[in-house]
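R.M. (postdoc): so does anyone remember the format we settled on? I'll just put the structure tokens first.
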């Protein structure tokens, strides 16, 4: 009894192996990673606009970030964006000042420093990458 089941298990795995070999021979199995499993993955080139500000696609849109932000840390204590965009620095740094909405707390009180609700800039503002659209988009703003 035992013997037959071992033999049939062997036959099945032999068949599976043969199948896999055939599939490979067909040569049409494309890798999704674009590289061999043993190679380090190469991230694609990402296009960043570093020249001018983007037009807004609708009136209330948080403007897109026209520069790279990889090096600017934002955490509980530090926000490096403020080094250029806070009203106290923006003039010197030649950067657009945070609009006054960023200095209103949720009760509408005017603050001197950026509101906690606006601390994590990239919750709303995102840099752009020249990546193909994942889904078709026919968005048009209302008037
Ligand atoms: C070294 C200075 C500097 C730092 C740090 C910096 N920015 Fe900027 N940012 C600029 C300048 C200068 C511009 C304007 C670029 C232009 O007009 O061509 C700009 C533009 C922008 C704009 C576009 C505003 C508009 O009206 O189109 C956004 C949004 C923005 N930055 C967000 C951020 C965020 C978020 C961070 C942190 C992750 C950050 N910036 C860090 C200098 C800086
Ligand atoms: C909750 C969403 C939100 C967060 C968080 C936020 N912003 Fe904004 N931001 C907006 C919106 C919406 C606008 C455009 C309307 C306005 O000015 O209020 C804007 C406008 C701006 C502008 C353009 C101002 C102008 O007058 O052209 C800059 C620069 C900017 N934000 C930078 C930042 C930075 C830096 C941070 C982080 C300290 C930040 N924002 C956090 C939503 C946000």
């Amino acid at each position: 009894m035992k013997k037959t089941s071992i033999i049939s298990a062997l036959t099945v795995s032999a068949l599976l192996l043969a199948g896999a070999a055939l599939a490979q021979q067909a040569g049409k199995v494309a890798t999704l990673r674009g590289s061999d499993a043993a190679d380090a993955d190469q991230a694609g080139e990402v296009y960043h606009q570093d020249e001018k500000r983007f037009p807004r696609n609708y009136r209330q849109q948080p403007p897109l970030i026209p520069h790279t932000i990889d090096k600017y840390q934002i955490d509980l204590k530090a926000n490096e964006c403020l080094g250029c965009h806070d009203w106290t620095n923006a003039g010197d740094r030649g950067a657009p000042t945070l609009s006054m909405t960023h200095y209103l707390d949720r009760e509408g009180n005017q603050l001197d420093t950026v509101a906690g609700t606006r601390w994590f800039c990239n919750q709303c503002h995102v840099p752009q990458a020249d990546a193909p659209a994942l889904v078709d988009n026919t968005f048009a703003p209302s008037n």
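R.M.: ...and that's the designed sequence above, right after the tokens. Also worth knowing: The mean pLDDT is 81. The longest helix spans residues 2-26.
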